[in-house]
Design a protein that fits this description.
Length: 287
């Protein structure tokens, strides 16, 4: 209703309201790190001329809410914003070709996000005036760092940690032991995001060569380590690994506390019963 009213008002003002349609053939794009990204956008207009054509490109990073302007075209002039100078290739003769596509060069992981093409060609004031493209920049996981944390002596708990510093999208991790058919992970054979493998109540059968595979759609990287009775602690953990191990420690401590409380209550109940029995016996002898 509001749209119809607005259109009627505009018709009264300009005499005739036109429609514009903006399209993109790719709403989702995967681009490898360092390559160029062609952001395609075309438009159709019912107006005979494009002398009043204006359009812009905006970018909203996956980690940001507010979009940033990349490019503006108005009155036949192209303006590339400072952050994209030298990286953005502007369209040629957009009014004639009705093609307002741009090329973003040497894409980086920080270029992942939503790109918006907005087109106006007055008096085209209604229709589909913008198109969105979601871009994901792919980066193969960097070689992960494998480490051992805890005590690897029999009967103890040991943590195998694996982490790739870089990778887009964020990699998943799988632990396998040499000679084992099944994957050893913290989620019953499924890939894990933390990269940590907890081995509780270590036995000699747990010793051997372990491999961590870090994987995303861009590729795979691996690291290996050997677990044995004299394996040394790998030092400090990163925040994700530390959080996982802290959860294990809290669980163990809480279990010990609850066990202690339960034992105390049982001992107290037994002592109270003995004390009651003694009092009853003494009372009988006095009588």
């Amino acid at each position: 209703m509001c749209s119809t009213l607005r259109l009627a008002v505009l018709v009264a003002i300009v005499g005739c309201a036109e429609l514009i349609t903006v399209r993109t053939p790719k709403k989702h794009m995967d681009v490898k790190l360092g390559e160029n990204a062609l952001l395609e956008c075309t438009f159709e207009t019912s107006e005979d001329t494009t002398s009043k054509l204006s359009f812009s490109w905006d970018f909203a990073a996956t980690t940001s809410i507010a979009p940033n302007q990349m490019f503006v075209y108005q009155s036949g002039e192209s303006i590339i914003t400072e952050d994209y100078e030298g990286r953005l290739e502007a369209p040629v003769s957009p009014g004639t070709t009705k093609n307002v596509s741009v090329v973003l060069k040497n894409v980086q992981v920080t270029d992942s996000g939503l790109y918006t093409c907005d087109v106006n060609n007055f008096p085209d004031v209604e229709g589909t005036t913008e198109a969105n493209i979601k871009v994901t920049v792919l980066q193969e996981p960097s070689k992960p760092f494998c480490s051992i944390h805890g005590t690897s002596q029999p009967g103890h708990t040991v943590i195998l940690a694996c982490h790739s510093e870089h990778g887009s999208p964020s990699p998943t991790y799988k632990w396998t032991r040499e000679g084992d058919v099944e994957t050893k992970t913290t989620t019953d054979g499924k890939p894990v995001n933390t990269g940590t493998l907890s081995i509780e109540n270590v036995t000699e059968s747990d010793y051997g060569m372990y491999r961590c595979t870090s994987t995303n759609v861009a590729g795979t990287s691996i690291c290996e380590l050997k677990l044995h009775a004299d394996s040394t602690d790998g030092g400090p953990l990163n925040s994700m690994e530390a959080g996982y191990i802290a959860a294990i420690v809290v669980g163990v401590v809480l279990g010990l506390v609850l066990t202690g409380v339960a034992i105390w209550l049982i001992v107290r109940a037994v002592n109270a019963k003995k004390y009651t029995g003694v009092e009853q016996k003494e009372g009988t002898e006095m009588r």
